[in-house]
């Protein structure tokens, strides 16, 4: 053990020396590196020196600035002291002002309390008034709500009615569309043929000689001729003039029945008066609005079934033929004549159906109420050898309608010119002269057949009055010259109202 210890110590010393030398060598190398680096960066140290000089200068400047700051701080402190003194004075003034404000507020509060009591009373009155006004407004609002509710209900009803009326109007429009446009030329020909048919019937029954027994009863002849209340003379004979006068009277009576019973806008079952009223209504509607007239007429025409219309048409034709027979039986009318007239009126009604279903209203009239109107007359009632001065002296009237005219008011178009007997046509004066001769003969012989009776004086005075009125002894008013037929026939108008056209063939057809 003791032998090995010194060697270990020597080794330890050598190791430590070696380590020291290595460390010294390393330090020296580091020192050399540092010197080398210092040598390489000598300019840095130069800059550091300059920086230190500048730092010294900066410190001097900073010291001077600190001194100035100290001076300024001293000034600021003096200013703060002044400010604190003024703040103390202001605080005292503020306290005084606060006290004064409190006093003022107290006074104002007292005054406000006094004023508020008065104001409160006024406000209370205003509030009460506002409440009353509010109650009134509430009542008004309630009333308006009620009225609004009623108005809405009415509006709804009106709207519902409007829908219903719209449906009805569409239905009526459909009815109006069933109306047709009338061919005026064709319709003129048909009416002309109807007039020709009428003339043929009249000629057949009233241009023939009457048996002697027709003239035997003077009173009956007198009463029947007067019952027509026509401005014509009816000689009790079979002369051409007497036959023409009877034919003219027959044409006039038939024409009146055509206008009264046949030429109507529609046929109402067993009600001629209703037909007249409807005609007046349609005429009024036409004057107001032609569309109203068309809708109403189409609605009336659709009211009855075709069979009902057929029955009404037959009834109208039968009534018209019976009335004509009642008025004309004394100058030759008989049952055969009635049957012919009934067929004639049926034909006329069938023709007029076309006019009833026309898109534009077609009228028939015996009046001379149109300006610049041209009437036609029958040449067979005029003689070329007639005395014109005598005709003018005995002219008892202007015109007597023999067949109605047919026209379309909306277009102001004449479809068929009517026929008239002018007061200055020769048969009028010829019949008058003949009647005067009969009166003179009766006065001299005591009767037409040489016999007198208790009533002859009365009849003589009546016939004398009839003859004398042509000379102006008795002036008849237009109302006294109307027959029992409803359609007016006599117009006491100037000759310029309706001009004449000669036509001896009875028009077309």
How does this structure look, described?
By secondary structure, this protein is of the alpha/beta class. It has 13 helices and 8 strands. Strands 7-3-6-2-8 form a 5-stranded mixed beta sheet. A 3-stranded antiparallel beta sheet has the order 1-4-5, with helices on one face. Strand 4 (405-408) and strand 5 (413-416) form a beta hairpin. The longest helix is centred in the first third of the chain and has 136 residues, at 42-177. It is elongated, with a radius of gyration of 67 Å. 26% of the residues are buried.
Strand content: 5-15%
Compute the gyration radius: what is it? 67 Å
Question: If strands are numbered along the chain, what order do they take across the biggest sheet?
Answer: 7-3-6-2-8
* Spans of at least 5 consecutive residues with low confidence: 384-392, 449-497, 504-509
What separation lies between the terminal Cα atoms? 187 Å
- Overall pLDDT, averaged? 75
What level of helicity do the residues show?
55-70%
> From the helix content, strand content and strand pairing, which structural class follows?
alpha/beta
- Number of helix segments? 13
Order of helices and strands: HHHHHHHHHHEEHEEEEHHEE
The shape is: elongated
How would a textbook summarize the main sheet? Answer: 5 strands, mixed
Number of strands: 8
